Give the backbone structure.
Amino acid sequence: MKVTLIATAKFGLEMIVKQEVQALGFDEIVVSDGRIEFSANITDIPKANLWLRAADRVLLKIAEFPAHTFDDLFEQTTALPWEDWITQDGQFTVNAKTHKSALKSARSCQSIVKKAVVERLKSAYQLDWFPETGAAFTIQLALVRNSALLTLDTSGVGLHKRGYRQEAGEAPLKETFAAGLVQLSFWQPDRLLLDPMCGSGTILIEAAQLGRNIAPGLNREFAAEGWPAIPAEAWADARQEAQNAILPGGNLQLQGSDIDPASIEIARSNAAKAGVAEDIAFEVKDVKKLWIDQQYGMVITNPPYGIRMAEYQNLNAIYIALNKMFRKKDGWSVYVLTADEKFPDYFKRARPDRVRKLYNGTIQTNFYQYYGRKPPT
Ligand SMILES: C[S@@+](CC[C@H](N)C(=O)[O-])C[C@H]1O[C@@H](n2cnc3c(N)ncnc32)[C@H](O)[C@@H]1O
């Protein structure tokens, strides 16, 4: 059965998620703000959830229609075949958000949709009362400019929850976001990658999983695993395939350091849980004392922001250290994510080749990109 899936993505990461969707072999891809829509088979839902690295969730599109009034919303929602997905004993919740639409109250839209789906299921199952003891279903309504998009969330907990981060250091990046940064940098598994302020190691762990072709969702569950509409074998097969696809470890050049010993301990423990302990060398080190002798390499790092960690004094010294380290190393590409717009004033090797605006949660940051010479092949 053909379905339309939507991978949701943070602002600025849509193109990366589009490439991931393409690489998984999906087609009819349509990209809009925060949304990558594609065509798939129902049995591909496991693959999309297991493999997408930078996407936040995978939603199953049920319908999209204009809705200017509560009647529009109610009638069109009741007309949809919810019983194809939601079981008689299913528990379902509705999340709604509205933006620039005549129907302004998300709360009212939410209860209208809930009522409409209950009406539909009552008549489909010939029941007046639902036990709600079975699989969980979350319906999402996004009403934007009077166009209602109804989806079912197949992921459940957001895809950033890979299952490896039992502990977080201070101000860790979301795993999906870190995976996006690595892919934006064009890092290739044969290249040396350094994060000299690695905190809990998220950037390097995501790079390691990418380099070893480890499906990021292999160690977690997804909401749609409980849905009878998707055969259990589809999940088992996708997991087995992902297991078989893992490349041997120990061949990557990934290095992480941080001044804080507790963070390095957390990073090591997270890397072990992610199955990539042997791929990353972690050490406790002040970035000001770091010494690099390789001619070629890449840095992806996010220094303390100052806003979040009140470390203003330390910041200038860190920038000066980075500048000293890489000023003459034109074989190194340097990628720095920070909310501090003064960063380029200190990093004087060149003007940034590219500055991307990205949101780390709600904080607006810039991803400063300085391209280095490619190593000779
Ligand atoms: C924003 S956090 C990095 C978070 C990391 N990307 C993660 O996902 O967990 C900044 C890190 O810089 C580290 N740091 C601060 N000053 C440092 C210094 N002088 N040398 C090395 N690391 C430093 C902090 O300990 C903190 O872990």
About this structure: The domain at 2-153 is CATH 3.30.2130.30 (VC0802-like).
